Amino acid sequence: MNTPEIFEGGKHSDTRGSLFFNNNFEASEIKRIYCIENADVNFIRGWTGHKIEQRWFSALQGSFTIKLVKIDNWESPAKELEILEYQLSAEKLDVLHIPSGYASAIQSNEKGAKLLVMANYSLGEIDDDYRFPIDYFENL
After folding, report:
1. Which is the most buried residue in 36, 55, 112, 124, by most CB within 10 A?
2. pLDDT tens sequence across 44-74
3. How many CB atoms are closer than 10 A to CB 117?
C-alpha cells in the first residue's frame, strides 16, 4: 500500500474494566518496537523519513497529532509538499500505517502521552534515516 492508512481499533468496557483491541491490524511484518514520549506538548519531533522502512504508530497513552509528507526527492524535497494530518488517541487502539517514502512529524497533545512505534526492519539492518529541519516544509 502506498498511502497512509488507519486500522481502526476499539474498546470494550464492562464491570471488570476495559479491553482495547485492534482486530484489523496484521502485525506479521513487525521486527522492532519502541515508544516515544515527547518532552512537552510544544515540541514537534520531526521531520524524519524512511525511503525503504515502513512504520506503524499507535497511541498507548494520551493523544498525538501525526503529520506526514510523501517525499518526492530524498536529496532535496520540494518545500511545498502536501502535509497529511492524523490524530491518534489511546481511547482506541487505532494503528496508523506509514508506508515507505514518507517523513513524519510527531506532536503529543498532552503531557505524558506515549506513542508506540513499530518498524519492519531491525535496528542497524538498513541505513534508511532521512532528517529535515522542522520548518523545512512550508505548509507546517
Report:
1. 55
2. 998 999 999 999 999 999 999 999 999 999 9
3. 16
